[in-house]
Amino acid sequence: xxxxxxxxxxxIRIRFLLLLRMFGNELAIRGALPHYFVDYRExxxxxxxxxxxxxxxxxxxxxxxxxxxYSRVYPKLSQxxxxxxxxxxxxxxDETLAHEALREAFCNCLIHCQYRMLEGIVIERYQDRLxxxxxxxxLIFPEDFLEGGHSICRNGILxxxxxxxxxxxxxxxxxxxxxxxxxxxxxxxxxxxxHFDKNDDRVELTLWLKNSRVETRDRIKMEMGELPSITLKxxxxxxxxxxxxxxxxxxxxxxxxxxxxxxxxxxxxxxC
Length: 272
Hints:
The protein is α+β, with helices and mostly antiparallel strands. The protein folds into two domains: 2-208, 2-Layer Sandwich (Heat Shock Protein 90); 213-255, Arc Repressor Mutant, subunit A. Helix content is 42%, strand content 14%. The strands form two sheets. It has a six-stranded mixed sheet, covered by helices on one side. Helix 8 packs across helix 10 (243-255) and helix 9 (232-239) packs across helix 10 (243-255). The chain is globular, with a radius of gyration of 21 Å. The N and C termini lie far apart (69 Å).
């Protein structure tokens, strides 16, 4: 009976902490989670003297719970999304698949975060990409996440809260929703990485914006022109893209007759 009571008490505490993160005030959050920190950094200037063009972090001017952080940051991130004019009946429709993908990526970052670790959540917006980083490790293999249909939620109550406020309706779909939103804009596939450290295990998701398929092709052709024997892996490293993205672009270029394939079709040693 005592053991059961301890389990109930523990579950109540966990639910309380999750509610605190989502809707609590800063003093209460800091008391329960001393290392809690959320940080949005906007880096849109080409001037090296300007560190940030905008920033949202716990600076004392707002209540830095998860709900407030999401509400303040999502509109800033969504400015990077295309908003074509479209009418549904007589109502303007500004939402696109890219917006759904963005919400999925942002909510995933907040929901799957390990909030008890020393470092906090970091969201960054650049001219050519969006970057999401949260403490913790993935609960499924990255390959399963990219495949879609696999999901283990670290903070299930937070997930339900986001769904209750009309966000995160596609959570658990893995990369499917994100990839669909990016494909319609000819943007490269998402890149997800895990970094393991004694004090700061971290999951990082990068969504590329301005490397459209045409731009990527031009850069690939430039690299091939300078070094015809270059491998796909070497091109990926030079362009800071995944090998999968380069393989897809090169296959399309071959199919369209832009380049002629010669030699083995391998990322490690093949050349085009």
